[in-house]
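Need fresh eyes. Consider my entry:
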Amino acid sequence: MQVDAVVNAANSTLLGGGGVDGAIHRAGGPAILRECRELRASRFPDGLPAGQAVATGAGDLPARWVIHTVGPVYGRTPDGSRRLADCYRNCLAVADELGARTVAFPLISAGAYGWPREDAVRIALDGLSTTATDVETAILVLYDVETLRLAESLAE
């Protein structure tokens, strides 16, 4: 997507993986991985904690930045819903720091991390609609038509 920033549903290592994370690293090329390694060596030696967000350049992607966030694994911690909401809020805060006005978000934690889709969509829509931000357009990019229809029905 042609946006200022793309959000990466990363794993805590920041070194790529499967799903959205792997796709962003593959499409963005080695520059993203290089910056992620630098972040691991300097600011996040133990990995990026769930709910937090950090930016890198976008490499070969048609965006300026990638904002990496680690969603919680469903059912692993009692504060998982709060941490998932923090992902959206903190990504918007990082976007504001960067001056990004358009941001594309995946549905964080709803893939391999097992978050139930309906709950994940509710948390995403709430976080994107209630967080004070200078971002003008936040796009929730969904995996399939079924999830899009669910999001449309919950947004009404």
About this structure: The chain has a mean pLDDT of 95.
